[in-house]
C-alpha cells in the first residue's frame, strides 16, 4: 500500500475494531479456542497492536467482556408489568447483539476460566441482582423477600440464557419466548 491508499491511523477506531472482532471470536470459540492471531486477522490489524492496546489475550478478554445493563429504564412502571418489561429487554438483547454481546462472551467463558466465572458472578450481583432487589424494596417488599425474589429471577434468567445462548438452542418465536419469560418472571416476583 502506498501512502495515498493507506488507512488513516485512528487508535480509537482501531481499538474498537479489535474489540468487536474479539467479542465475535470469544463468543464463537471460547477463551481457549481464541487466538490473538485470529482476532488480529478478523480486525485486519497486526497482532502486535493487540499487545500494545490490551497487553495480550487476557487483557483483550477483560476489555471485550466489559458490560453494563441499564435496568433503571426497565424498572420504571408498576410491579404488575415488571416481568413483561424485563422479558422484552432480555429478548431484545439476545436477538439484537448476537455473538458480539459481551455478556454472552462472559457466560460462555465462565465454564472454562475461573476468572470469567468470578467476573460473571460479580457482574450479575452488581448489574442485575442488586438493582432488582432495590427495585423490589421500592415496591414495598421486605428485605428477605426482595432478595429471595431477585435471586430467583436472576437464577431463572441465567439458566435460560445458558440453555438458549451457550448451548445454542433455537430461540424459536420471539413473541412466544418473550411471553413465556414474562409470565415466569412475573410469577417469581408475585407468587406467595
TrEMBL record:
<protein>
    <submittedName>
        <fullName>TetR/AcrR family transcriptional regulator</fullName>
    </submittedName>
</protein>
<dbReference type="Pfam" id="PF00440">
    <property type="entry name" value="TetR_N"/>
</dbReference>
<feature type="domain" description="HTH tetR-type">
    <location>
        <begin position="12"/>
        <end position="72"/>
    </location>
</feature>
<keyword id="KW-0238">DNA-binding</keyword>
<dbReference type="InterPro" id="IPR009057">
    <property type="entry name" value="Homeodomain-like_sf"/>
</dbReference>
<dbReference type="InterPro" id="IPR041678">
    <property type="entry name" value="TetR_C_16"/>
</dbReference>
<dbReference type="InterPro" id="IPR050109">
    <property type="entry name" value="HTH-type_TetR-like_transc_reg"/>
</dbReference>
<dbReference type="InterPro" id="IPR001647">
    <property type="entry name" value="HTH_TetR"/>
</dbReference>
<dbReference type="Pfam" id="PF17920">
    <property type="entry name" value="TetR_C_16"/>
</dbReference>
<feature type="DNA-binding region" description="H-T-H motif">
    <location>
        <begin position="35"/>
        <end position="54"/>
    </location>
</feature>
<dbReference type="InterPro" id="IPR036271">
    <property type="entry name" value="Tet_transcr_reg_TetR-rel_C_sf"/>
</dbReference>
Amino acid at each position: 500500500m502506498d501512502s495515498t491508499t493507506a488507512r488513516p491511523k485512528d487508535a480509537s477506531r482501531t481499538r474498537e475494531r479489535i474489540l468487536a472482532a474479539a467479542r465475535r471470536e470469544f463468543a464463537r470459540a471460547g477463551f481457549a479456542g481464541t487466538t490473538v492471531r485470529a482476532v488480529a486477522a478478523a480486525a485486519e490489524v497486526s497482532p502486535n497492536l493487540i499487545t500494545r492496546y490490551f497487553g495480550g489475550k487476557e487483557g483483550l478478554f477483560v476489555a471485550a467482556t466489559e458490560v453494563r445493563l441499564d435496568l433503571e429504564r426497565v424498572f420504571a412502571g408498576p410491579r404488575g408489568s415488571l416481568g413483561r418489561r424485563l422479558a422484552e429487554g432480555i429478548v431484545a438483547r439476545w436477538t439484537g447483539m448476537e455473538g458480539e454481546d459481551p455478556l454472552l462472551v462472559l457466560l460462555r467463558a465462565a465454564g472454562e476460566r475461573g476468572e470469567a466465572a468470578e467476573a460473571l458472578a460479580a457482574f450479575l450481583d452488581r448489574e442485575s441482582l442488586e438493582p432488582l432487589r432495590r427495585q423490589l424494596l421500592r415496591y414495598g417488599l421486605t428485605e428477605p423477600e426482595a432478595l429471595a425474589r431477585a435471586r430467583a429471577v436472576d437464577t431463572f434468567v441465567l439458566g435460560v440464557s445458558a440453555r438458549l445462548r451457550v448451548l445454542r438452542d433455537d430461540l424459536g418465536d420471539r413473541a412466544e419466548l418473550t411471553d413465556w419469560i414474562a409470565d415466569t418472571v412475573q410469577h417469581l416476583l408475585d407468587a406467595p
